[in-house]
Structure formats: structure tokens, C-alpha cells
Amino acid sequence: MNQEELDTDYDVIVLGTGITECILSGLLSVDGKKVLHIDKQDHYGGEAASVTLSQLYQKFKQNPISQEEREAKYGKDRDWNVDLIPKFLMANGELTNILIHTNVTNYVEFKQVSGSYVFKQGKIYKVPANEIEAISSPLMGIFEKRRMKKFLEWIGTYKEDELSTHLGLDLDKNTMDEVYYKFGLGNSTKEFIGHAMALWTNDDYLQQPARPSFERIVLYCQSVARYGKSPYLYPLYGLGELPQGFARLSAIYGGTYMLDTPIEEVAYTEGNEETGKFHSVKTKLGTFKAPLVIADPTYFPKKCKSTGQRVIRAICILNHPVPGTGNADSLQIIIPQSQVGRKNDIYVAIVSDAHNVCSKGHYLAIISTIIETDKPHIELEPAFKLLGPIEEKFMGIAELFEPKEDGSKDNVFLSRSYDASSHFESMTDDVKDIYFRVTGRPLVLEKKAEEETA
Amino acid sequence: MNSAVTSIKLVLLGEAAVGKSSIVLRFVSNDFSENKEPTIGAAFLTQRVNINDNTVKFEIWDTAGQERFASLAPMYYRNAQAALIVYDVTKPQSFIKARHWIKELHEQANKDMIIALVGNKVDVLENNEDERKVAREEGEKLAEEEGLLFFETSAKTGLNVTETFVAIGEKIPLKTAGDQETDSNGVAISDEQRIDLANSGNAAGQTAGCSC
């Protein structure tokens, strides 16, 4: 392979190395497609990269502190891998499945997150992860615990084709509120189930059919059962390892990678952006053709629209564990909306040097929520209060975008912005949806044979 | 006498077409293929070598072509204990690139990493010494300045290929029984929390696992 011979024709061009795009290039490369993957930035991860501290200062602060001061306070820059978008993997979620089925687990190591906490009346409580914790948990009174137990037994024994296990409930007709009523569950238990287990960010689900909530609770329970402490996993060196791992998968199956390569021009057939189909992209390395392109919203702003939601995220550096968590090295805190008079929950994701994302003795807490007022930073106040002294804060607001069309007309297939949810389930839904639109068939994950290793 | 197997992650670096994969192929399967296509489909290759009563298992990572347009991911260097920086003795440009990789490793990788500088394709010189564009002395000098091992190899004939890996293996501190695993910063990882996704603890299919 010579530097000079560079193919100009591909089956798929992918723009942006966010995790959505990297999973798709990995899967399509394994399918035998010839993929060219380009990023305008000089690092992997796109909007959801993990960055070093110097990159973080550059991105968020107008007057970054000097290198000397930064190193004196926070140590070596390369010890830091700070996620721009906070999320955890559900241990039994779809991303975990994709990782296992593609063997990308060869490149990324995971730890389980130590605990999940929920905010109630000014304090945080651990979400029980087993029966012993549940019995001693102060989250519910003794009678409520019994009702909750009945509810979970129903979830656990429910079988689609055995009517007797349904207890007269129809997941597609009854609302979740009706299900709660059936089990006589009180408001605070509903809040616990809906927000700390089903991980809904608001209360809209109450009046909707129960099935999605049911499935989310099953996923939560299976995820907790898998490793025991919490439903969540987190990769060593940060979430930015995930796009890198899938990019390596793609490269191993012949994918070509170009970072630091801005798109100078996109051409359409008939020379017409309105009516033509995608034709090629022009870059400093040449013009590359493919029948279709997959990209994140930043590459085709005109083909995207706002979802109407904006998310505020605050990255906080701490030099101590979060108070009241038994010095946990990693955790999630959910502040349900009703506890703080809001419509949307506030999430806090905390990781630490145990995950090789910051220098020794430090903790990273990322707070996020959907903006409801014109003073979004004040909306995060309840979360800041839980963290204790904060060494440094980086705040940013992101508008969430989605594609205007499905790509069938112009062969431009766009992903959605990373949302405010605490895990990757909506992202993998997007991956599967784009995969279906691009290939015309649903994504089927089959365990690949172990790769040849002598 | 130490019977433990020491695993070493070794990464390959060097310009495209200098013979990185061919060196590995020679080492792993004692094979060579003249017009080898760029590597496809293997996550990494492994090979065991016995060095003074000890077994060293090399886990060899190929760049998978990601070095071509400056797109090698930081993940590639993570926890690597050894690196082969390969250049082609008939291509001066590839030697310049080798200097670049040495610098890159000093910035990105673990300080204790064992690095070998390898001038490949010396078989080409057998019939025609004029083909040589990088003097042996130049390679030796660079290696000495940077504290690297140095070999001139031929993946085609097998010259010095195994020797290179054995020399690396001899410099790696061997694992003794009871040694803790350490991460790139030399920090011990004592870890019940670390998990192996592929062999996950409890059966994933079971429901009703939750008892809260």
C-alpha cells in the first residue's frame, strides 16, 4: 500500500467520529463495505470526545490558566480524559451487546460504577442493589416495601404468552399510572421507580402505555443483576475509548481513517443540493465519492432541525469524594424533577482517578439537565450543593439537533445529537435506525467466531 | 525458576509499507508473502517465546492502516510495554518518519516502554548495496541517543526478526507469582470492580434479578 495510491471511490463515507458514527463504520466495515471515515477535528469522538485538561480549558475558558499553574494544581495533562457528554453504559444494554458481538471488548476495559443514588428531601440515598440493601434502605416505609416487592415480582414473572402472569394488566393499553395504582404504590415510590429505575427524565411516561416503562425496568433489573453494585459500567480512560475502539474495528476490516480533515465542499448529483443525491466530498487530501454519506448534525446543519431541547452540562473537578457516598470512586446521582420543582431531572455522573480519567486524588462530576428557564446555570444549583467544594467548573449549553429527513431522498443519513439521558440506549436506537435505513435490513448481532490468534 | 507467563502488549509503528505486518507474520508464523495486502480482520496476533526458562507472550498490535493520515488513536498506546518502530533501509523518508514516532512515543506512552528501532528490508541490499539509503550507523546512532534497541532485519529471509523480539523480551521485567497488575502510571490495580464483559458474571437473560 503506497501513500500515493489513495482510492477515491468508497461504498460509504462517514463524517464525524462520534460514537454513533464509529459504531456504524465498524459494523459496515465488518459487513464488507468499503468505508472512508473523516473527521474535521484532530481527535476521535466528535461532540462526545474525552479531552485533556488543556483542551478543556481551551474549549470552555476565555483566559485559560498557564501551563505551569495547571500542572502544579492538576498534574500531567495526559492523565486527564474528560468526557464532554456524561453517560454510563447499562450493563445489560444494547451498547454492551454490540461491544461483545463485535469483539471491541478486546480494546476497552470496563469497571462497574459503584452506586446509583437518588435525591430525596434534601439528602441522597443509595438505590438498593440487592435485597439486603433494600430491607435496610430508608427510602421507603415497611408497608410500601411490601407493595414494591409485589410490583417487582410481577415484573419478574411476567410472560407475554401467559395471561395469568399479567394480573389483568395490558402493557399496551394500561398507562403506567394505572399499573402503579393496581399495586397501590404511593407518589414517592412512583417517583423512585419512574426516575431511578426506568430512568425517565420527566413524568410524561405516567399517562403513556406501560410497555416502554416495563422494558426499562426490566433492563435496569437485569443490569444490576449482572455485576451487582449498580446497573452501570464505565470504560477505563473515559468514554472517548468507545469511538476509538469501533474505529479500530473498522480499520481492521479495511476502513480508511482521516482525522484533521475538514470538508471543503459536498457535491450532489445534477449539481443540485435540493433535488440531487449525495455524490462526493472535497478535502485537502482529494475528492472522495460514495453512493451515500453518514454524518453527525454538525456536517449538515441545513439538513437538521432543533428538537427544541437544550441541555446544560457542567463539568466539575473535585479533590475529594462526594459527601455521603462512602467515598465511592464512581456513582450516579439522580435529582428527580419533583424534588426540586422542575419538569426534568438533573443527573450527576461522577468518576475518578480509578478510571484513569484524571490525576490522582481527583474526581470528575458532570451535571446535566434539560434547560427550562433563561438562567440555566441556576437550575444546576441543587446539584452543585451536593458536591462540596469545587476546584474548577466548565459549563456549556448544547442545542439538540435531529435530521429533517430520513435520507432516502438524498442519501445523506444523519445521526441525532447526544441527548440528556444518563445512558446510551437512545444512542444505540439511533445506530440501529440508521443501519436499517442505510442497508435496508435490521441490525442482527451474531457472536463472531473468535479471531485468529496464534 | 519462574513458570509464570508474562504478557506483553507490543505496538507496531512506522510508515505505511515498511514491512510492519511482514515482520509480525515472520515472527508469528515464520512465513512471508511477497505482495502482502494491508492487514485485515485480526484484532492482534499473539506469539509465545521462551526466554531463559520464562515464557513471554507477545500481544502484537498492528496499526490497521490508521497511521496513514495521522489518525492513530491514543488507545493504541495504552498500556503498551513495548514498541517496534520500523523503517525501510531503502527509503530515507521512512527513517524521518521513525524519528517522528520516537518523539510521539516519548509524549504519549509509558516511560518504561521498551522500544526497538528496526531497519527492515536488508535483503534488498544483498545484490545491490546501492539500494541502501539509510546507513546502518545512522540507525545505530539514533537508537543510542534515544536509548532504544537497534536491529536491521529482513522479514523476507527472517534475518534478526526473532532476535528483535527476544531482545525486547529480555528487557521486560518478568512477572513473578503474586505480582499485581499495574497500569500505565505504575499504579497497582486491585480490582474487584474491573470486569470482563465477554465473560460476564451472571447470566444476562435472567429476569427478576432485582430485589430492591
From TrEMBL, chain A:
Annotated InterPro entries: FAD/NAD-bd_sf, GDP_dissociation_inhibitor, RabGDI
Which GO biological process categories is it annotated with?
protein transport; small GTPase-mediated signal transduction; vesicle-mediated transport
A GO cellular component annotated for this chain's UniProt record is:
cytoplasm
Q: Which GO terms describe its molecular function?
A: Rab GDP-dissociation inhibitor activity
Q: Which domain of life is it from?
A: Eukaryota
Similarity annotation: Belongs to the Rab GDI family.
This protein is called: Rab GDP dissociation inhibitor
Q: To which species is this protein native?
A: Naumovozyma castellii (Yeast)
From TrEMBL, chain B:
**A GO term for molecular function:** GTP binding
Q: Which UniProt keywords apply?
A: Nucleotide-binding
Q: Which PROSITE patterns does the UniProt entry name for this protein?
A: RAB (PS51419), RAS (PS51421), RHO (PS51420)
What Pfam family is a match, any one? Ras
Task: Give the superkingdom in one word.
Answer: Eukaryota
Keyword field contains Nucleotide-binding: yes
Q: Name one GO cellular component term.
A: early endosome
Sorted alphabetically, the Gene Ontology BP terms of this entry are: endocytosis; Golgi to endosome transport; late endosome to vacuole transport via multivesicular body sorting pathway; multivesicular body assembly; protein localization to endosome; protein targeting to vacuole; reticulophagy; vacuole inheritance
InterPro entries for this protein: P-loop_NTPase, Small_GTP-bd, Small_GTPase
Protein biosynthesis as UniProt keyword: no
This protein is called Uncharacterized protein
Tell me what organism the protein belongs to.
Naumovozyma castellii (Yeast)
Gene of this entry: NCAS0B06720
